[in-house]
Amino acid sequence: MTATEVRNTIMARYLDAFSGQFTIALDNQISETADKWVRLAVNFETGAQDSLGTAGNRKFLRGGTIFVQVFTPINKGTDDNDDLAVASTNLYDGVRIDDLWMFNGRIRTVGADGEFYQQNAVIDFQYEDVR
User: Fold this and answer.
1) DSSP strand E in 12-58: where?
2) Per-residue pLDDT tens for 44-97?
3) Where are any strands of DSSP class E within 81-115?
4) What's 106's domain CATH number?
5) Which of 39, 83, 105, 129 lies 20 to 30 A from 22 at CA?
């Protein structure tokens, strides 16, 4: 898989699951804020050659992190934020799609920031790149 294929697969899975339920801002796209919204980002971070061979037959393992920043209105409790952060983590954690593996899902609490309460669903991923 290429980096573009990985990013598109991750984003398509989120959009298929949650589109129309709340505002979803994607990497490098501006979105208007709403009552409840998320920002979905895919960060590529690691890579290593995993096999020897001639060009076109070498396997590389690449990896990174999916970040789903979950925002809900301040002073309205944490239940909605918790539910969405958990649902976002569960959407990816332990899932394999072709040569893309997603694992190690967790939630990081950021807290209040301005008019929103924020938590981040964080999921690691790894994929094979043969070239």
Assistant:
1) 23-26, 37-49
2) 998 877 777 777 778 889 999 999 999 999 988 899 999 999 999 999 999 999
3) 95-97, 100-113
4) 3.30.2000.20
5) 105
CA distance 25 to 32: 8
Hunting for tokens 């971070």 — which residue is that?
45
CA distances from 41 to 75, 83, 100, 130 (A): 26, 19, 16, 24
Residue with tokens 């208007």: 32
This prediction has a pTM of 0.86
Task: Report the domain count for the chain.
Answer: 1
Dihedral (C-alpha) 103, 47, 120, 14: value to the nearest 10 degrees? Answer: -70
**Residue 88 burial (C-beta neighbours within 10 Å; 0-12, 13-18, 19+):** buried
User: By residue range, what is the domain housing residue 55?
Assistant: 3-130
- What gap in Å lies between CA 91 and CA 79, rounded to an integer? 18
Q: How many angstroms separate the CA atoms of 66 and 78, rounded?
A: 22
CB half-sphere exposure, 63, CA atoms < 13 A: 14
User: What confidence category does residue 33 fall into, taking pLDDT thresholds of 50, 70 and 90?
Assistant: low
